[in-house]
Structures
1.
Amino acid sequence: MSLSELHDELRSVAADLLAKDVEWALLVQAGWVGLDVPEELGGAGATFAEVAVICEEIGRAAAPTAYLGGAVLSIGALLSVQSNEFRDQLIRDVTAGNTRVALGLSAERAQPNFELATTRRGCRIHGHVTFVPDAAAAQQLLLPATDPDRVPVLVDVASDAVGLSIDNQPVLDETRQLSTVTAEGVEVDGAAVWRFDGDPQARLRGLIDRGAVAVAYDSLGVAQAMLDATVSYARVRRQFGQPIGAFQAVKHACADMLVRISVARQLVTSAVNELNEVTAAMAKAYACDTAVEVAGKAMQLHGGIGYTWEGGLHVYLKRAALNRALFGSPAVHRALLARRYR
Amino acid sequence: VTDLDEFRAAVRSWCAAHVPKDWRAAQTGVSDDEFVSFQKSWFAELHSAGYAVPHWPAEWGGGMSVPQQIALYQELAAHDAPRLVLAFVGIHHAASTLFAAGTDAQRQRHLPAILDGEIWVQGFSEPEAGSDLAALRTTARADGENFVVNGQKLWASGAMHADWCLLLARTDPDAPKRHGISYFLMDMTTPGIDVRTIRNAVGESHFCEVFLNDVVVPAANLIGPVNEGWQVAQATLGAERGMTMLELAERLSNAGFRWLVAECSPVHDALVADRLAQFEIELTGLRGLCRDLVERSEARQAGPADASIVKLYYSELLQRMTGFGAEVGGLAAHTVLTKPASSGWESGNWMLDFIGSWEWTIPGGASEIQRTIIGERGLGLPR
């Protein structure tokens, strides 16, 4: 089976599964939570490219899953710290569905990490971050923190630990769950402080890039779903005695959607094949702009029905717009690219 | 180090040694004869290295793999080599038509000649047949061993330099419009052919009108079956689009973007920086699209609208980019009155390149036609 055939199969299984209301246990059962976890840790031994396929399908279904925070980000974080007994066991538990985790990383750029301090009463963690994806359902939180030597580390904290609060932050997009996470001197066991494997700053940046590309794939799925819905509608909806898709204004608008999606697909594919700050910035900026544009056009071309709550297009438009804001807006990513021109 | 890496390194060192230095300056304001001789000598130089017709079959002097062709065009673009403007129709359209539908005798007659510098022009469009090409009215009447051609062709680029013409003419006036057209190879020295240049919006005169008065074309120069010229043209027109678009995309991303950044430097303004980054992103996407089209065409998996997506996106991105160059170039951009010959669009003289960009959004299927093709063939929307 070629890689693209494998991806097609994964895609069709995902589409079937996501058509229903998805519970976490189903995602675990399908093997998606531990998709890029090595086999010796109980995972499927696949790569981020396969994770990205799932993200695209979740976006296509606008499915309200905790996959971004509960798998993509947290598994990415667990795999980027040095192996140890506790980490390895946690990966096994998450992959098997015995426990759920979230990464205490803000989806808003440039928020400070948590602070790890050594006091007379032992090791304590402090901090406050907003817009953390999928923390509400987690039993364990992985908090990116700065240790007393100013080195970034990952700290494993139980979500019901004393001094830790996880507050739901409602947003217009009802398909995503975001929280504010506050740690006020939460006690930390030394064995729960994990060092990054390699350059800690680079690994932390890598996690943000991973989140950005996962969201870019989600947006690609959103855009494709909106184009498909619009084309289907334009073929059957008749006005002035013909299907509206026969009108050049509608046809050309659909063509522009397809062109943008084709370009976005190239950019996200190259980001997943060669993940770095530049490819991630390009994919995130373009794919997320595209999804907002395409979903907006879809709403327009559906006419009155497109603007109704019942019609459901607003769900996609809101998800597309939220995706655009997660892990850096297009303008932020373009500014990042533009630093190279000086 | 793979074979492909070695190949790329070889092309790179060849380019470093052979791409003429400062050719842009030397080709600015030259006469038509100088342009033609520069084009022919650059073609000969490429040919002697085996780089002129990499896409032809091996037995005719090509035979490069698709990854090698991609590497070749990437390196030529990176070294800012002159474009093959004059040989273009010969090595692409004429050759692909001969490979697809030509007889052995036609191939033997023309393919080696093209490698020796035979120049071709496309005689397709007419005053009443632009976007609606099948509405063409030029007639070819059978007369014994010959056809006699009468009519008028338009937008025949480079016709004044051409030795031969790819001609579409109507052989059955009563058939439905796509079923009565035949495809001919026409010798441009035949009596009855009158070529007049048309000055374009940039001020250059490479488009031509071609008047055809009782031009005698031997029946042996018919290519493909009589009355099936439309089908032959459809099959061969898009054949080269992938690789030529890839070359253009590489040029736009290399020299084009480099010049644009230089034009804006030092980049202090956040809005300018944002626009530049957006162009870099789009260029990266365009290059990906072109590579994808080339690879899928090779595997015969290209979708029915893929070539249209690439053409539309390239030409409109070119227009936006050159437009931005002209905008940031300010009044100074308006003081450059001529651009180098042999440069295609990419002269870095933004106003001229901007005006010239309509040469990409109008011909070869205008953007509106491409959008209709994408909507109907790519998305299955009703006609």
2.
Amino acid sequence: MSRSGRVYGVLLLAYPREFRRRFGGEMAQAFKDSCRDAELRGGALGVMMLWVRTMPDLMSTAIVERSRAVRSRWLFALILLSLALGVAIAYVDSSPGWDDTGVSAATVLGVSGLFGLLYSARPWLWGLAVGAWIPVFGIVTEFNHPFLLALVFSFAGAYAGATVRGKFFPPQR
Amino acid sequence: MDEGRIAGREPRDLLPLSTAVLNILLALAGGERHGYGIMREVEERTEGRTRMGPGTLYGSIKRMLADGLIEESDERPDPAMDDQRRRYYRITDFGRRVAGAEAERLSGLVETARSRKLLGTRGTYLPEGA
């Protein structure tokens, strides 16, 4: 039984580190308890049957947790990228030689729309990350509140992207 | 419980529940339990038809904690008899509402099946031609 527990402890490495840190100890304990019961009820055959049931469970849920971990890293990368693009748009828009407001507005709309399309769960996040910088630059450098209109474009783009995503690629439960 | 995080969410937003999540909620509706206690309760209640492995159990627990359906409990039903390393979980008020909404949804399906003569009065399959 203790050997089974040790093997299961090693197999837990299949899960992402964060998941293991939070639940690994409890999972190992639950498996040891299951092992003890299986041995009491069915001896070595009972333990073997427990392993037969446990392996598919371990493999399928490890894949699910790994893919979720990748998705959260993907979200983090998208947030950084959206912030960088938002700052870049605001920098260009606030430069002295730039006076094409229509192009700035269209860029904000398009970029935030693209992020809404890529990750539709939090459109407001893309609205803020992409669109907040033009008002920030405008208010800091010129005390000019109309720059807040950039947020309208970024939120409109982000929600439009998310709506398109939801319409053509509805989330699966 | 962090009510703010689930503020504005309706129980039906989380429906339909997976079999594992519904079984965990049903187990915890009967009282606080640790992980293995939940596994045992589900297996006994379903007469061995549903057996959850630790991966399914804790993957579901992780998401249920995030959704505010359950929470960790600091209390130990009997500290003298129990391993302090075990964590106990309990159902939240929101979790109860979600479980109730899911039970109602399933009950509606059962009623429909019965009205279309797919089920007997005690939930048994009707024989062909009945």
